[in-house]
Write a structure and sequence with these properties.
heterodimer; A: mainly beta; seven-stranded mixed β-sheet; four-stranded antiparallel β-sheet; 0% helix; globular; B: mainly beta; five-stranded antiparallel β-sheet
Chain lengths: 114, 113
């Protein structure tokens, strides 16, 4: 079964702790992305990676870090420097179809920090 | 950078009626326009897309139109059903960043039985 998996579905942390969200894909897609979604809001890009061992900041990278050591994995660390970390986090990957990249999303991880 | 605006933010329709969601974009070089459906607590699902060399695309009850001159594109859902209730997002690929998407703010669609 091909797809994108994110774990866990729900995550609870105390303020001041770093937390790592997992994202794995077996679609053989080159590019992967992390988005943040707040209630009633759209999707904002945190980081993206086009190839292994390379990644770029998105629009709201402050307080987050990523790594891309394997093609199928793109974990996101929410650090204690992120001022408002409670949100729904979505991972995506993309594949080139013709001249454009189609993005597909995982099921998301809801992070609550208290 | 690219800016995508989406209207309306909420849309309530009677079952069987049509629903139309409109988006405008700012980057004239944008060439790919996907639409996503997001159900509560789930990740967005790609439902249809259109590329800049096409004016209209249909898939069963959904269709998307693109007007490159006016820089806007629309999603049309015909014969709406309760399972069409969800949040819909439009997006555009900025011309200079081929594998990044800029999303609209979303439209919450409620289909009343």
């Amino acid at each position: 079964d091909g797809g994108i998996t994110q774990s866990p579905k729900y995550l609870f942390r105390k303020e001041g702790q770093n937390v790592t969200l997992s994202c794995e894909q077996n679609l053989n897609h080159d590019a992967m992305y992390w988005y943040r979604q707040d209630p009633g809001q759209g999707l904002r890009l945190i980081y993206y990676s086009q190839i292994v061992n390379d990644f770029q900041k998105g629009d709201i990278a402050e307080g987050y870090s990523v790594s891309r050591e394997k093609k199928e994995s793109f974990p996101l660390t929410v650090t204690s420097a992120q001022k408002n970390p409670t949100a729904f986090y979505l991972c995506a990957s993309s594949v080139l179809q013709g001249a454009s990249y189609e993005q597909y999303f995982g099921p998301g991880t809801r992070l609550t920090v208290t | 950078g690219e800016n995508v605006e989406q209207h309306p933010s909420t849309l309530s329709v009677q079952e069987g009626d049509s629903a139309v969601i409109k988006c405008t974009y700012s980057d004239s070089a944008s060439n790919y326009f996907p639409w996503y459906k997001q159900e509560l607590g789930k990740g967005p699902q790609l439902i249809i897309d259109i590329r800049s060399n096409v004016g209209e695309k249909k898939d069963q009850r959904i269709a998307v139109t693109l007007n490159k001159t006016a820089k806007h594109f629309s999603l049309h859902i015909t014969e709406t059903q309760p399972e069409d209730s969800a949040v819909y997002f439009c997006a555009a690929t900025p011309g200079a960043a081929g594998n990044k998407l800029t999303f609209g703010g979303g439209t919450r669609v409620l289909v009343k039985p």
